[in-house]
Amino acid sequence: MASSHGSRTEQFALKLSLLGTVIMGMLGLIFGYLSDSKAIFLDGIFSLLSMGMTGLTLYISILLKKPDNRLFQFGYAHLEPLMNVINGIFILLTCVLAFTSGFLDLFKEKEPINLQLAVCFALFSTFFSFTIFFIEYRISKKQKSELVYCDSQEWLIDSLLSTTILFGFLLVVIFDKLKLSHLTTHMDSYLVMIIAVSAAVFPIKILKRNIKEVLLVAPKDDYQKEVDSYLSQLCKKLKFDGYTHHLAKTGRQYDLEVNFLVKNDKKWTMKRQDRVRQLIWTHFKRQSSNTWLSVSFTTEKRWL
User: Fold this and answer.
1) Same domain, 47 and 70
2) Contacts 24+ apart (CB under 8 A), 235-239
3) Last residue of some domain: 180, 214, 248?
4) Based on CB atoms within 10 Å of each CB, which residue in 53, 124, 146, 264 is the most buried?
5) d(CA 83, CA 191)
């Protein structure tokens, strides 16, 4: 279980992110409308989408502290990857729609944008987004929080997109000074397409990792290797007649099921079985405090 201090720090990071997305979302829509820039308006839409997802993420972080109950008898850990999958799908769909809109605008006559407002917003957005990213990234590493890490990566993408927008608008300013403004007529549309393609990288990564957890695909990490190694050694040491194990990862929780084959059932009393359970639990608790452990003994191979 995470410490209460760790949980409070995680929730602080997510509340800070939620406040940040509200600010950036509203400013993006306002400055996008005033400057007549679809790129800035799209940035505001991404922020508002992120606000909804961050709010749900914050709610899940609170649920993860609660013990299992009659309704959720295996706890709430499975909600974390499920939330990340929903988050990823929403962002990916928005990216597809934004790219399509930007591409179609290339074939339309484009009105000039208010460069002064656009550059001011891009400067503020770049600084603000990088600040939130660094705060969340440090907290995610310190608290080992996948929720905060995923949220920090969204801010990293926002930061890079804001930098791209800033660079694009500065390019327009430079070209205007050189009297080559005809070369940047559709710069706003190009920026929309660049934002859409760049932003799509993050949800694809998130979906790839979290769909595996939703489908209970066995993890390929150091914990899996440790489970394989330790149980193999334990089986030889205690001279079991065979064993099987199943491991799944849902969010920050590992679900480990171990089944031992014992042909001499008189030797393995309930007290001896419990001592083996305690051995396994003590060992893996050092590897991860969030492990749901189930250990069973059987005299028939078909129950392995």
Assistant:
1) yes
2) 235/260, 238/276
3) 214
4) 53
5) 29
| Structural domain for 181, as ranges | 4-214
Q: Find how far residue 239's CA is from the centre of its chain.
A: 42
Euclidean distance between the first and final Cα of the chain, in Å?
A: 29
Last residue of a domain, one of 163, 196, 214: 214
| Structure tokens, 179 | 């009297």
What are the tens digits of pLDDT across the range 139-188?
888 887 777 887 787 788 778 778 888 888 888 888 777 776 665 677 77
Question: What total of structural domains would you count in the chain?
Answer: 2
Structure-token pair, residue 79: 């909600």
How far, in Å, CA of 9 to CA of 143, rounded? 8
Q: pLDDT per residue over 246-284, tens digit each? A: 888 877 778 889 999 998 878 888 999 999 999 998 888
DSSP3 helix / strand / coil % (the chain, rounded to 5)? 70, 10, 20
97 and 205 in a common domain: yes
The 10 Å Cβ neighbour count of residue 224 is: 15
In the three-class reduction of DSSP (H, G, I as helix; E, B as strand; rest coil), residue 109 is classed as coil
The model carries a pTM of 0.64
Rg (CA), the chain: 26
One domain for residues 239 and 208: no
In the sheet that holds 242-250, the strands lie side by side as 242-250, 253-261, 291-298
